[in-house]
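Reviewer 2 asked us to include a model.

Predict the structure of this chain.
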Amino acid sequence: MIKGNLGSVEVSHKSILTGDNHIVVSYQAETPEDNEIKMGSPVSLEREGGVVKDKVIPGGSDPIGIALDNLVNASSGTIRVVVFGAVKRDAVDFTAPFNFEPQDENSVVEMLRKNGVYVIN
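Predicted model (structure tokens):
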């Protein structure tokens, strides 16, 4: 019998979620050439002519959730969005292009909170 240590493996996963209760929904997404959706970006439903579409865009005027996936410049695809639950404040990307004033972190946090996404420390 031979006893030996062949090494060790550490597995880790970084999550922006905190707590146990979340609702995550998949949405179609599209990014303009000069922007991208990053994991942690607040996203809004796209509006065209006053009609809300079932597609998310980065930033926007009424953030409905936080993206859990990345989508690079000038592309489209499906991303997962946290639409209910708590997320870690230090994981939220507050640099998305918002269409409201003032565009500060507290305004974004408040808009997300009224839609059911709680940004906490």
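The mean pLDDT is 85. The helical segments are 105-114. We have added this to the supplementary material.
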